[in-house]
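Run: sequence + glyceraldehyde-3-phosphate -> complex structure.
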Amino acid sequence: MSLDLESIFYDEENIPAEFALEEQVDQREFLSNGEMLTWQGQISEVFSPICVRTKDGLQRKRIGSYPVCTEKESMEALEAAVKAYDNGRGAWPTMSVADRIKCVEDFTHKMIEKKDIVVKLIMWEIGKSFSDSVKEFDRTVEYIYATIDALKDLDRDSSRFQIEQGIIAQIRRSPLGVVLCMGPFNYPLNETFTTLIPALIMGNTLLFKPPKHGTLLHYPLLEAFRTSFPKGVVNTIYGRGNAIVPSLMQSGKINVLTLIGSSRVADELKKLHPKVNRLRAILGLDAKNAAIINKDADLDLAVSETVLGSLSFNGQRCTALKIIYVHRSIAQEFLKRLSAEVSKLKYGMPWEKGVTLTPLPEPNKPAYLTECIEDARKYGAKVVNENGGQVQESFVYPAIVYPVNSQMKLYREEQFGPVIPVVPFDDLEEPIEYLIGSSHGQQVSIFSKSASVISSLIDPLVNQVSRVNINCQCQRGPDTFPFTGRKDSAEGTLSVVDAIRSFSIRSLVAAKFTEDNKELLNDIVSSHTSNFLSTKFIF
Ligand code: G3H
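>> structure
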């Protein structure tokens, strides 16, 4: 019997008041060159993945609108960022680390004041459960404070002179220039800020384009950006990416491209830069993380981690498990237990307590997932769980698809949604070969109780991906661990410490260790006339 999925949606008047948006957010301003500019041109309306029941059927709820600016505004924002950087001579890139930290702390206090509305907008814009939206906000604030602490440590280490082979030097990290920062829809606040904040705190100036789904939630923070940083340091750009971003890249004035998104877009953008050696790219891209479940695995554990790994936030995580290899001898039992666990997951509206499965923000996603399932059926697979793949507007009930093979889209495409492709294997070489042939290389999860099996997988797999998870799902955290990937999955490394390095470069001031130079350097340090050459400590 099929599920009555229409009933998961509410009538407008039954939406609990504490979770409802008090009013629609019709954004007509954007931050550029230190000013909130009013926009009178074209706008894009924002419809939530959360539908409401109306007399005409289910309708995505309208929650607001935002400006669709043009190339003109984005080029003006670029000029503002270039001017604020001023070839590294601007107030921000030359400011002392202690003072930059004060500005970021000031911003964070103001951001925390906006927590309620930002969390609600995360929930309404992308359909993330309320509790996960709160977690996303809190994790972001923790990330900012951890970044500040890491920078203080780094600065303390750099607050001394080194003497080597008769040369005295002070080595510090310096900014790179103008950063174009674009975040993803699935962690629109957190992942955007894990690049934006390190880029900012290291003294770069920014052009920030909010994600297409997850734009409005940044609006309440624009005033905090405006009042916490010098003019032109943070500039926002709104509009269709393909209309406004190419000319920014072609200008040659972008020094760092940081994008959490698709490898196709990153590829195209990088190629547009006229001086590719001057462009640094910090990228978090596609992934198709596999789980490899050996015949001696703890099956209950493998099942529960597969559920978490493939269905947390409806499978819309770059780190999600997107293909499951299971030894043929245990495949049927695995599928039975996996189907049973999936059927226990609560589905419904994001504000409901304990809800796991919620509506999807990308309007085309239900059709795409249906197409993937149909394609798998065509090549011999079945949906093995009851009601798997059932769709109602923006909601897709999870589908476990088996047996998946190399002819199917689900074998190679990143589905980024609640579909779990399962591939049976006879020999561990098969999943290893899959990973070798894959164009992605982020993480893998391996399941076995045997030390010899696990160790036989570790050595080949650490050279295919960047993190091997033993008997647990793939994930980014803890945020102090390096987060990166091979092949088309990433460029550069993000973690609290790595990110501040990624958005900066070492510069050193060096002199021959002579009496005259000692006196000169002492003079500069004691008169506090340089922010770079300084032995001041930040506590
Ligand atoms: O979308 C990719 C995120 O970085 C995943 O982070 O593993 O903490 O959910 P997570």
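>> summary
The CA atoms of residues 515 and 521 lie 10 Å apart. The pocket of glyceraldehyde-3-phosphate is lined by residues 186-187, 191, 317-319, 475-477 (CB under 6 Å).
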